[in-house]
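Appendix B, Record 12. Input sequence as logged:
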Amino acid sequence: MAELDVGRHCQVERCRRLDFLPFVCDGCSGVFCLEHRSRESHSCPEVTVINERPESDPRASHPCSFRGCAERGLVPLMCPYCEKNFCLRHRHQSDHECEKLEIPKPRMAATQKLVKDIIDSKTGETSKRRKGAKNSETAAKVALMKLKMHAAGDKSLPQTERVYFQVFLPKGGKEKRRAMFFCRGWSIGRATDCAASLASLKNDNNRPTAKVTTGQNSLRVLE
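Logged structural output:
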């Protein structure tokens, strides 16, 4: 009958724990438990050799010039800018804080500023135009409200049928203009007769023999 594999004991003398899945060290080839699997925990000879190695390799005779770095290199790595020797880790200008390091300027900085200024100016002009248009629109609404308050006309006309005008009267009279309203369905002749009546003006429009003249009266639509 074949023997059952029940694991192996840890080679650390103070442990000797039986482990079903033992760990084999790749340094000393010893068998250890999970707790002593690292080289430091079981005092692996390989670690001892590394720790006893001299701090500096006599063959590496090129010390790093970066402050606080004790690394030495087998071959010199000179910085072409400050002309100092550095190790592999500090060989780049940014890594050893090179005293002759030039910080690159942002590309297209002037162009970006110009574009920003143009956009800002266009935004300001658009805002002014919108504000001006809004003010004009408000002023027109206020003028229409005032005209409706003082407009003369046939009071029997429904509000939905009224259209408001600023009527400029003939020269030589006491009034230069007057606000009036007429019916939307009236003809120009009827509206003129009504305007003459409201302004107490002489009206010959209804006479067949009257001479037709232009430029005496003027109507300007406000609605």
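The CA atoms of residues 63 and 216 lie 107 Å apart.
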